[in-house]
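Here is one chain, start to finish.
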Amino acid sequence: MPLAFVLEMYWMTIQGKLLSSLVLVFNLNTDHHGKRSSNWIRQ
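Its structure:
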């Protein structure tokens, strides 16, 4: 199968996985540094 065809068929799945991965990495990164978003908003 050509790559373009696969990307066209599974674009929503790939996009969802990438987005959820970015959110997960961002959450783990902020937790690691001890900067919770609720504390950051209050300051």
